[in-house]
Amino acid sequence: MYKVIFADDEARFRAYFKCVIDWNAHGFELCGEAKNGLEALKLVEETLPDIAIVDINMPYMNGMELAAKVKEKYPSTFVVLVTGHSEFEYARKALKIGVDDYILKPFDEEELLVALAKVKSSIEKLQSERSKTEKEKAALRESFLNLLISNDDAGDSEMIQEQMERLDMQEYGGVFQVISVEIDGLQEELLHTAEVRLRKSTVSSLLGDLIQIEGKHHIFNGPENRIIMLLQYDHEENVSLSEDGFVKLYSILKKHFGFSVTVGAGRAGSGMASIRQSYKESVVALRNRISMNLDDVLKYENLVSRPANIGFYPSEMNENLLIQLRLHEEAKIKDTLEAIQNYIRTNQLSGDYIHMILAGLVSLCLTYVHELGKHVNDIFPTGFSPFEEITNKPSLEAAFEWMHELYMKVLEHSRNVKRSKSNKTLTLAREYIDTHYADSQLKVEDISRHFLIQPRYLLKIFKEGLGMSVSDYIVETRIKKAKELLSSGRNLRLSSIAEMVGYSDLAHFSKTFKKHTGLSPSEYEVTR
Q1: Which of 178, 372, 437, 499 could bridge across to 278 with cysteines, CB 3.0–4.6 Å?
Q2: Least confident piece of the model among 34-38, 159-163, 280-284
Q3: With respect to CATH, is domain 151-305 assigned 3.30.70.270?
Q4: CATH of domain 421-527
Q5: DSSP string, 453-485
Q6: Is the backbone peptide bond immediately before 106 cis, with ω within 30 degrees of 0?
Q7: Measuring CA to CA, which residue among 390, 385, 391 is closest to residue 403?
Q8: pLDDT of residue 153
Q9: 2-126 under CATH 1.10.10.10, yes or no
Q10: What is this structure's pTM?
Q11: What pLDDT score does 5 carry?
Q12: What gap in Å lies between CA 201 and CA 239, rounded to an integer?
């Protein structure tokens, strides 16, 4: 609807004007009427109409004077003069001072509609041009701000300085900080482009309302679907980023819009060159989201101040997982994955190291898929990209939830492979070794004799079922039990531990332990 006001000193004409056409049906809303020029000017100030239709002859202020004042104060309001035949030349002169059109009195419905159609067309054209100009300005602004975060030499260009003046960035201080916001789950949800734009627009709007600083902020769309907030502080002493606004952002998005975001913050710095550096730091912070609290702003300064900890990831966890997959031990797989997750959390590992561990777990699971004689595409859809999946997970919990689903899906598929008598024999043989590993004389022949089978057959089912020999499994079981004893805190003598896990010779035990773990028993005990 276009808002219209009209002014005429004749009551009869004002009454006619209100009913000559169905205003609403033609896209217009009558906002008021005036009987003289002064009332009309006040009405314009109060209603800010799109169109003012005014008679040329009115008391106190005639139509020409009114038109001049309206055009001076409210240039976006279109003015149409109503005039008699005797004033025709007078009206034509009015066009030269900015009046947009005129209509001769008396007029009928058709003549008024024609005049209104002309004005409406002019308004739409102007709005289109303004919209196009605003879009061009917005595109140039976004392009420029992206240049600032992507170009290491941005501060040296004369063009950069000119653009900063246009954005009023020169009026504020030279201390900058970059905040990068990523919408969680964009790759997984496969959203339509329009939905992605809507979510980014929502985040940008809320950021502008919720994040307040002593200075100015510039919000724009950055690389890889990120929303970037460039903070420009008045003075260095005013550099302060409260997390309260971000906490509200998380809450509002989750409660009212059904999605979440992750926020990474670079450090504040002086000069244009600091913008690029702060942006890179904010991205590094985002990449470490998996090692930090999901509800926090991920601050780069917290990452660099945190002691580097790559831990000592126990390789037997992966070895156990592969065996558990082969034996279809669903409960044990779940327990092992939970143990790995707890190990990561307890040791506060870095994001890079966590991703390395997760990548190893994915590789192990896919190795088992190939052992089944299957291809990855037989189980997972085309385009399945597990390493991209784990990289994009917003938290450690989300990553391990996805990992558990991966293992369970593979396990479910493997159950379709017919289990033979040899599988049952393998399970029984494993249980026998797990019970008798402390016997230093335990051999393949002893186990074969117990189950009344040939040693060669026992070797075959171990190789096919576990990918290792019987002797290797006995050694792995003994080393695993030795690790448990060394980590128990009971301060047992090494000779006692060696005997408890089936080694009568301490030197042989130590040599075998180091071969499998890379550490001597004493060194391993210190690391636990």
Answers
A1: 178
A2: 159-163
A3: yes
A4: 1.10.10.60
A5: --HHHHHHHHHHHHSS-HHHHHHHHHHHHHHHH
A6: yes
A7: 390
A8: 62
A9: no
A10: 0.56
A11: 95
A12: 26
Give helix then strand counts, H and E, for the chain: 24, 11
- Write the CA distances from 224 to 180, 181, 186, 282, 466, integer angstroms: 11, 11, 10, 13, 43
- Angle (CA) 133-138-141 rounded to 5° is 125
Helix intervals (H) in 21-87: 37-47, 63-73
C-alpha span between 46 and 31 (Å, rounded): 10
Residue-level pLDDT at 177: 93
Q: Confirm if 72 and 25 have CB atoms less than 8 A apart.
A: no
Q: Examine domains 2-126 and 421-527 and report if their fold is the same.
A: no
**Where do the domains of the chain lie?**
2-126, 151-305, 315-414, 421-527
pLDDT of residue 442: 92
Question: Side by side, which strands form the sheet with 101-104?
Answer: 28-34, 2-7, 51-55, 78-83, 101-104
Encoded tokens for 21: 């056409």
For Cα atoms 83, 89, 90, give the angle at the middle one, nearest 5 degrees: 60
pLDDT tens column, 37-75: 999 999 999 999 999 999 988 999 988 889 989 988 998
Q: Kindly give the pairing relationship between strand 175-183 and strand 28-34.
A: unpaired
Q: How many CB atoms lie within 10 A of CB 393?
A: 22
